[in-house]
Amino acid sequence: DAGVIQSPRHEVTEMGQEVTLRCKPISGHNSLFWYRQTMMRGLELLIYFNNNVPIDDSGMPEDRFSAKMPNASFSTLKIQPSEPRDSAVYFCASTRTGTNEKLFFGSGTQLSVL
Amino acid sequence: AQTVTQSQPEMSVQEAETVTLSCTYDTSESDYYLFWYKQPPSRQMILVIRQEAYKQQNATENRFSVNFQKAAKSFSLKISDSQLGDAAMYFCAYRSRDGGSQGNLIFGKGTKLSVKP
């Protein structure tokens, strides 16, 4: 299995631009999570999906952030417009609900908003 | 809501020595999972060890072991015979066992471990 695949690995953009981060979960996993990691706040859950349905988006900072999961094998996290304070590492993770399986993480996307 | 606290922002150990990283958590649940994840400079989150709360026996994985004290809500990680490759950020994490959380992990702020040759 290829694991959780995230793209791009690095993204540098200018303030005000739209940014789209992508994630492919492990096949067979039905829960998908987006986390954000910063020095100040550590790892924070932004949103998670179960069976492609958003379950809890209370961690999404504001309306500039949106996430979709159109099918079981793909999810996006979009920031529009981006701001310098959005600079962080964004992780996607997946697991199979109802088991004691660990959360499998992607390699993360390092986002820098100038 | 559950919380996870790692009180040591940084720790240092001599190669081949033993080091213990602390973690405490707060929950009203009786059944849950606890994890230690390692994050090296590569950024990849790597599961080190997992403990199920209903199991009294402490989990071990080669040089890594935990001291799980359920009543005290404490979950420390012991690394024996430390190696240079153990240098990384270590995160303690909590996961509810009930269906409502859908597997979400709650993380501590992390402990940065340095290994001196």
Continuous helix count of chain B: 0
**Spans of at least 5 consecutive residues with low confidence of chain A:** none
Radius of gyration of chain B over alpha carbons? 14 Å
Strand fraction of chain B equals over 45%
The strand count of chain B comes to 12
Kindly report the greatest chain-chain contact and the residue count on each side: A-B, 22 and 22 residues
Q: Can you count the beta strands of chain A? A: 11
| CA gyration radius of chain A, whole angstroms | 13 Å
The coarse overall form of chain A would be globular
Total of helices of chain A: 0
The quaternary organization reads as heterodimer
Description:
The complex is a heterodimer of chains A (114) and B (117). Chain A is mostly beta strands. Helix content of chain A is 0%, strand content 54%. Chain A has strands at 5-7, 10-13, 19-24, 31-38, 42-50, 53-56, 65-71, 74-79, 88-95, 104-105, 109-113. In chain A, strands 2, 4, 5, 6, 9, 10 and 11 form a seven-stranded mixed sheet that branches. A four-stranded antiparallel sheet of chain A has the order 1-3-8-7, with no helix packed on it. In chain A, strand 7 (65-71) and strand 8 form a beta hairpin. Chain B is mainly beta and 117 residues long. The radius of gyration of chain B is 14 Å and the shape is globular. Chain B starts with a strand and ends with a strand. The chains are: A mainly beta (114), B mainly beta (117).
Give a concise summary.
The complex is a heterodimer of chains A (114) and B (117). By secondary structure, chain A is mainly β.
